[in-house]
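Lecture notes, part 5. Sequence design as translation. It can be helpful to think of inverse folding as translation between two languages: the language of shapes and the language of residues. The source text, in structure tokens, appears below.
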């Protein structure tokens, strides 16, 4: 049937959702010692048990879950991960895998071996499959008491992502999970939901795909002020109080990197400029000399990141024109290309901002030169 904008496309009753708390209280896991498990493991163990339970109330749902996740980075070969060098995805994925291996060893010794028969297909690969289901298909909701839960919502997790489509969430009375249409759909046309404002890094690391034109794309940069530097040791606690996440900065396309500039204004301050720290914390310029140091340091940092990639944007474009790439190779190249483009755009933005300062005779925040 046709679907009109604002129509409800998906409506799932609350009691059909699968959450850690529900599993621990109402399933076979209520009689098993679960101390030491990582947060999502009860749902993972439930999946591994129920997928082989012919009498499961969720059999129809479990039967249509993917048998494998070949495009999820945790399933990639080392050669495929090497294509993401410079993005941080390669090292992050290997670190997550090491954590999962340790968690598996703990659960194997403390749950699986003590309860033989509960998990007929028990192995690290099966455990990894369960993690990938949870990683790619769960939703974050808030219950009646204001507690946040991670839940599987059968049927709702079958829709593909499209920026601008409807996001899923609970109704006002918390009794249903719904997804509404944000556009008209003709009969037979694919319908979409929206996984949220996620970057290509987020999409690839959790779901195994990227978007060539991603309106939400961003890149997270990591900076730490040095406690061994006297000025840094003074301004760092003040900055952390204003922005607890200051060390993980996001840069976006066509946006002035205000948080980045704030960090570099503070990091390049000399002792005599500390009287202006309050203005700097508010994102205002301190002085012409400080502004010059901050812009130079920011552009240098972004340029060094850009140069750390093994290929250029143009080389990536040429590679993407090839028809011989695997899905994983193509996704890796799109990820690193999009991150480099973000770096280039922000270098250009900072350069143009400095030109405007010199032309206007006014620093950022209305401070006169």
């Amino acid at each position: 049937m046709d679907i009109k904008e604002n129509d409800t496309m998906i409506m799932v009753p609350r009691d059909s959702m699968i959450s850690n708390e529900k599993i621990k209280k109402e399933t076979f896991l209520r009689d098993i010692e679960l101390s030491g498990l990582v947060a999502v493991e009860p749902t993972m163990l439930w999946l591994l048990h129920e997928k082989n339970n012919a009498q499961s109330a969720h059999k129809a749902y479990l039967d249509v879950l993917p048998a494998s996740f070949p495009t999820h980075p945790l399933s990639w070969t080392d050669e495929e991960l090497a294509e993401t060098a410079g993005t941080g995805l390669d090292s992050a994925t290997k670190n997550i895998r090491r954590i999962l291996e340790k968690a598996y060893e703990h659960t194997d010794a403390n749950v699986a071996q003590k309860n033989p028969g509960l998990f007929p297909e028990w192995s690290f690969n099966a455990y990894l499959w369960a993690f990938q289901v949870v990683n790619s298909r769960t939703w974050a909701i808030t219950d009646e008491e204001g507690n946040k839960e991670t839940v599987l919502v059968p049927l709702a997790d079958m829709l593909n992502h499209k920026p601008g489509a409807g996001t899923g969430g609970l109704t006002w009375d918390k009794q249903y999970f719904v997804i509404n249409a944000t556009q008209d759909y003709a009969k037979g046309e694919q319908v979409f939901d929206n996984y949220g404002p996620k970057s290509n890094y987020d999409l690839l690391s959790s779901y195994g795909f990227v978007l060539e034109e991603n309106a939400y794309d961003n890149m997270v940069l990591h900076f730490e002020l040095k406690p061994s530097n006297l000025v840094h040791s003074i301004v760092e606690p003040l900055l952390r109080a204003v922005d607890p996440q200051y060390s993980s900065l996001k840069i976006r396309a066509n946006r002035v990197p205000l948080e980045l500039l704030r960090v570099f204004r503070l990091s390049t301050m000399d002792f005599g400029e500390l009287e202006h720290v309050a203005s700097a914390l508010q994102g205002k310029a301190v002085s012409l000399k400080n502004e010059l140091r901050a812009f130079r340091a920011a552009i240098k940092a972004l340029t060094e990141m850009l140069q750390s990639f093994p290929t250029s944007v143009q080389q990536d474009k040429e590679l993407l024109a090839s028809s011989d790439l695997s899905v994983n190779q193509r996704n890796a190249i799109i990820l690193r290309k999009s991150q480099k483009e973000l770096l280039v755009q922000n270098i250009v933005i900072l350069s143009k901002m400095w030109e405007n300062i010199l032309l206007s005779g006014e620093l950022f925040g209305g401070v006169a030169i």
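The translated text above is only one of many valid answers, since several sequences can fold into similar shapes. The CA atoms of residues 222 and 248 lie 5 Å apart.
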